[in-house]
Amino acid sequence: MKLKFPHKLVIICLLILILALLCFYYASAHEKNLENPSYGAILSNYPLGEVVFVYGSVIMINSDSYDLIQNYNGQTVMMKVLGPSPGNLGDEISLLGVLGPSNQIVQVKNFHVISWRKWESEILRSFLALLFLVIIFLYFWKFNFRKLEFERR
Amino acid sequence: MPDWIVHMAVAYSVCRILYYKYPVFNSANTVLAMLGAILPDVVKLDMINHLYSNYIFAFHTPFTSLILAGLISIFFKKKKLAFLFLSLGVISHFALDLLMIDVGAGIYLFFPNNWQIFHLDLISPDDYNITLIALLLAVSLYLLGILSQRRSNKKYIK
To answer: Residue A30 has what pLDDT?
Structure first.
């Protein structure tokens, strides 16, 4: 399939527009369609007594509770979870629990922990994988700036 | 989500196996499948700036990822072929992500039509063993490929 310049530009613009619309739709409808309300609902209408989905890094561990911190759309949200911490400081925890007053989770229904060491090593591995992909991609493909196309080397 | 080594290794292995039967699964096209396999994880940009996290997570759905694959394939000479290989990678990505343990989250397989979440809760996202197995499989297939190529070259010389 050979696309000439104006057609190519139109298709590119159209696809970018579709992607932008999908992103806007996702952002506007995601919270409403969650099985359990999450940070969006906690920050807006605070569904007290409902089972909510929260996630974040453990920043403090007390004898009877632990604190989670999460950056939600540029806003820092702190949640206190009552009960013993299933992870260590820095670990990423996602959980379903009953929302109590003052950003507290009073009863945990289900949780999953990812240790920060494993999380950091995963990020490092992924970065190395990306570097490897860039190298082998450029080994097999080159960009023709005149035609604005990738071609086989 | 598993790390990118797993995603790329699985896409590579699938293409490498199919290459024995179909030559179109050559190395250059395999690289496209590997690129497609990490395409939905463009959402990891969220780690750099959380401001757009609500928007960017749309890319971690099959439909949006396939459109992104379509956009990228426009910049290739053989657009249909590029799109097919990128799509193969995208499909392998979601097949793997479906296996992950997700509490309160998962994959919106039918977004934007349906908001039902899918997750099989079989593997922890931080499981090292999966990375090792996927990597071993990919390396074995690579070595097997080199070995069979040498054998066929020897036959040709004889």
So the answer is: 86
A116 touching B (Cβ < 8 Å): no
Q: What contacts B12, CB < 8 A, 6 or more positions away? A: B30, B33, B34, B138, B141, B142
DSSP E strand boundaries for chain A: 51-61, 65-72, 75-82, 92-100, 104-114, 141-144, 149-152
Q: Which residue on chain B is closest to A32 by alpha carbon?
A: B115
Best CA proximity match to B20, nearest among B157, B147, B158: B147
Q: Nearest by CB to B53, which of A18, A73, A119?
A: A73
B101: nearest CB among A112, A141, A143? A112
pLDDT digits (tens, 9 = 90+) for B66-75: 999 999 999 9
Neighbours of A42 (CB within 10 A): 20
Q: What are A75's strand-pairing partners?
A: A72
The reported pTM is 0.85
Q: Would you tell me how many other CB atoms lie within 10 Å of the CB of residue B4?
A: 25
From A29, A49, A36, select the one nearest A94 (Cα to Cα): A36
Tell me if B126 and A126 make a contact (CB, 8 A cut-off): no
Coil, helix or strand at residue A8: helix
The answer to whether the beta carbons of residues A152 and A141 sit under 8 Å apart is: yes
